[in-house]
Amino acid sequence: MPDTRAAEVAIRLCDVSLKRGDRPVLEGFSLQIPAGKVTAVMGPSGCGKTTVLKLITGQLRPDAGEVWVGDIRVDRLGGGELSGLRRNIGVLLQNGALFTDLTCFDNVALPLREHTALPETLIRRLVLLKLQTVGLRGAAQMYPRELSGGMIRRVAMARAMALDPGVILYDEPFAGLDPISLGASLRLIREVNRALGITSVVITHDVAEVPQFADYCCIIADGHVVATGTPEQLHDSDQEVVLQFVGGLPDGPVPFHFPAPSLAEDLLAMDA
Amino acid sequence: MADPQNLNNRLFAEPIREFGRAGLFLLTAISRMRFGLLQWGELLRQVYFVGVRSLVIIVICGFFVGLVLTLQTYDTLTRFGAGDAVSTVLALSLFRELAPVLTAILFAGRAGTSVTAEIGLMKATEQLDALDLMAIDPLERIVQPRLLAGLIAVPALIMVFNVTALLGGVFFAVYLMGGDPITFWGNMQASVELGKDFGGGLLKGVVFGFLVSWLAVYFGWSARPTSEGVALATTQTVIASAIAVLLIDFVLSAFML
Question: N or C, which end of chain A is more exposed by having fewer CB within 10 Å?
Fold first, then answer.
C-alpha cells in the first residue's frame, strides 16, 4: 500500500510523455501533488487533464517518464500489483458511473464485498455510514435511475470512499450541477479530505469555485503544466495563459480556432 | 469500379481478424474465470435475465413451428397414405434440427442483443472503467456470468421449444385433423432415440448457447462507446450468431449422423 500520508508529495509525474496516435497529449509533463491536501487540476478541454488521471490510476502507461503514487512506481506495475494500488485510490468518474442494475446500497457495498471478508452485518453498517456522510442514507434502496445527477455523484463519492483510500481522484465532479448540488459537492470534497486526512485531486473547469475547496492548483495547457500555486497565487498571476483561463477569455495563448489553413485559402479553393 | 484489394480486405481479411480478436477475448475471459459466491449469485441472475425472460417468445414460436410443420408434413404424407408417420417426422426434425437452431437464433435476437447492448452501454457510461478502477476485473464480473448463462439457458429453452412445438403438432394432427392420439404418441416413441435424437439436440444447444453468448459479449465489449456503436454491435450479434449457428449446426449434424 502506498503511504501517501507520510510522504510530503503524494503523487509525482516526472517528465511524462504520451501520444495518442501521432498526436502528442503530454510532452515532458511534470507535476507534484502534495499529500493531505486538495489539489485542483485545471485547464481547457482536451489539454490532457483526464489523461493525467488515467496515468495516476495506471489505466494508461506513458511512452516516457515516471508516475509515482507514494513510493510506488505506477507505470511499471503488473496486473496484481495494480489492483493493490487501485484499492487505495478512490475515483469519482465524470457521470458517477454507478451500476444501473444495483441499488445505491449495493453500489457502495460492491468494493467491500469484493475486497474484504467482512460479515454482511458490518458491511451494512459501513455502507450506511458512507451514505450518511454524503447525505443519502435515505436513498439506500433506490436505483440510480431514480436519482438526480447530483445525487448520483454523491453516491459515487460514497463508493469511492468505501475502502477508505489514501487518495481520491475526482474527474470533473461539478459539471452540470445545480447551485445546491454544487455547494454540497464542494463542501463534501473539503470535509472528506479534512476528516479522513487523505489526498484529493480534483479535475475541473470551474475556476470560480476553486478557492472554496482547493489548497493547491495547477493549470495544464498544450500538454504542459503552465502554472502552479495556491488559488490566491494563481489569481494574482500575470502569465498570459493563466489570465486567459481565469478570466475566461475566448482567445489567447489557447487559440479559439482549431488549426486550419487561412480562411481566404479555403474559400478560394472552393471557387477553383 | 471497386478496388479489388479493398474488396478482398472487407470480405476476407477483416472477418478473419475479427474472429482472431474474438478468440483472444474468449481465451482471456476463460483464463480469468473464478467461481466465488458472488459469481454464482450473478450467474443465477443472468440465467434469469437471458433464460426465463426468453420463455414467452420460445413458447409462442415453438407452438406455431410445431403447428405449421405438422400442417405441411401431414398434407404431403396423407397423399401417400402415410399420415400416421407425421409424429415421427415432426419429432425427429424438431429434436435434431429445428428446435436447437431456431431456439439459438431466437435466443440471439432476444437475449444476445440485450447482452450486447447492456455491455456496450456499460462501456459508454464508464461502468466498465469504474469496475476496473475499483480493482474488480470486468471480465470476471460482467463477461463470465453472461458467457455461462447462455450455456445453461439455451439447452433448457430447447426443451421448452420441443414441448410446445409437440403440443402444436398434437393440436393440429389430433384435434383439428381428428388423428388417433395413441398412434401419434406411439409412432413417435418408437422412432425417437432419447440419447441420439433428443440428447443430440441438447448437446447442440450447449454449443449454440456458448457460441451466441460469446459473440454477444464480444460485440458488446468491443463496441464503440457511442449510440451508433452500440446499435452496430447489436446488429453484428444477430448476424454473426445466425451465420455461426447454421454453420456449426451443419458440422455437428455431420458428426452426429
Answer: C
State the pLDDT confidence band at A272, using cuts at 50, 70 and 90: low
A163 touches A90 (CB < 8 A): yes
In chain B, whose CA is at the least distance from the CA of A161? B134
Q: Which CATH superfamily is domain A9-88+165-271 in?
A: P-loop containing nucleotide triphosphate hydrolases (3.40.50.300)
ipTM value, please give it. 0.80
User: What SS3 class is residue A98?
Assistant: coil
In a domain, B26, yes or no: no
| A5 pLDDT above the threshold of 50 | no
**B133, A110: Cβ pair inside 8 Å?**
no
Domain with B235, as residue range(s), is 35-256
Distance CA A201, CA A213 (A): 11
Place of cell 454524503: A134
Which among A7-21, A88-102, A243-257 has the top mean pLDDT?
Answer: A88-102
- Cell reading at A226: 503552465
Q: Which of B38, B126, B135 sits opposite A97 (nearest CB)?
A: B126
CATH 3.40.50.300 location in chain A: 9-88+165-271
B29 part of a folded domain: no
Residue pair B161/B57 in contact by the 8 Å Cβ criterion: no
